[in-house]
Write a structure and sequence with these properties.
4-stranded mixed beta sheet, two-stranded antiparallel ribbon, about 10% strand, globular, alpha+beta, single chain, 11 helices
């Protein structure tokens, strides 16, 4: 009888947990905190017909992906949709909360790529590094194209494929080229608008459990913008302002940012090791760009050395990326 009751309680707890997770996801989707780059904002750059054609291509690719999913069973399909949903949520969190709480440093900007560049060019987020005061205004702004991964477990094969594809793009193997964003407008300098070429590609992410924890924290922070929710907290004897400050402090010092920096540095160092075996002017230019980015990233990472990584040190995506690039 005791075993039966325990089983019932576990199912109830799991149902409540699932319900809370769905509410958290809905909260963030309803309040993303910022919009991705919109193709229709580029009518001063591209002819309307070209933009319309690109948007129709996005629809076709989405329809093709949806039709490919028809071969999967209900449970398999559910897991795929969950993965897609969490990837998009993490993308929103990194681009908006990551910038708000300076996860990538105070002098960086994060932009969610246009849907066309997401689907056609594999770019989720573009990370830009602002120039230091001593750098010439004519200097190029360093940028990274981020691909977001939210593995349910340490899916080493999937991550291997992603990083292998990035190596092919860096070295020009199999006709591959570095990512290009067709629809880009700099968050640092709005006058920089149009096509963006040769961006260094990086994969970052968290495993399933850590994504869920981060989603809950960011959803809780967003909920405090709702007067009704604040009223409910006050009725429970909770000070909304104090709660918001507590959440802000947690997000400013969240260990996910340490994970992301380790993933970025690990891959950039791995790229240099691979490129050292290559020759040519293009290779040398890419190495110069990677070293410039590494210098900036290491400097920012140094400012976060007192942020404890805690159990995020065992994050499955982090461990897998470090294993692949070792």
């Amino acid at each position: 009888m005791l075993s039966f009751n325990n089983g019932v309680n576990e199912r109830i707890d799991q149902d409540q947990k699932n319900k809370r997770q769905l509410q958290d996801v809905e909260t963030i989707f309803n309040n993303p905190g910022g919009e991705r780059i919109q193709e229709t904002d580029f009518k001063d750059i591209y002819p309307p017909r070209e933009i319309e054609s690109d948007l129709k291509m996005v629809e076709r690719l989405q329809d093709k992906f949806a039709s490919q999913l028809e071969q999967f069973s209900g449970e398999e399909l559910k897991k795929i949709h969950e993965g897609e949903q969490r990837s998009e949520i993490l993308e929103i969190i990194i681009a908006t909360d990551g910038e708000k709480y300076h996860w990538t440093g105070e002098k960086t900007r994060l932009s969610r790529a246009a849907r066309f560049d997401d689907i056609a060019n594999g770019i989720d987020i573009i990370l830009e590094f602002e120039l230091e005061s001593f750098e010439k205004a004519s200097s190029e702004i360093d940028r990274i194209a981020l691909g977001i991964d939210t593995s349910r477990n340490s899916d080493i094969y999937a991550l291997q494929r992603k990083i292998a594809r990035n190596i092919e793009k860096l070295t020009g193997q199999n006709g591959k080229k570095l990512p290009q964003a067709k629809y880009f407008q700099s968050a640092i300098d709005k006058n920089i608008k149009g096509e963006l070429n040769t961006i260094i590609p990086i994969v970052i992410g968290l495993d399933f459990n850590h994504v869920n924890g981060l989603i809950h924290l960011c959803a809780a922070s967003r909920s405090l913008a709702d007067p009704k929710h604040n009223q409910e907290l006050q009725e429970m004897g909770i000070d909304p302002h104090r709660k918001q400050e507590e959440l802000k402090e947690q997000l400013l010092k969240h260990p996910a940012q340490v994970v992301f920096y380790r993933q970025i540095i690990t891959q950039l160092n791995y790229y240099l090791k691979v490129l050292d075996k290559q020759e040519g002017e293009q290779t040398e230019n890419i190495k110069v760009e990677i070293n410039s980015i590494l210098k900036r990233v290491r400097k920012i990472k140094e400012t976060k050395k007192n942020i404890p990584i805690a159990n995020y040190d065992q994050d499955a995506v982090l461990k897998t990326i470090e294993e692949i690039c070792s």
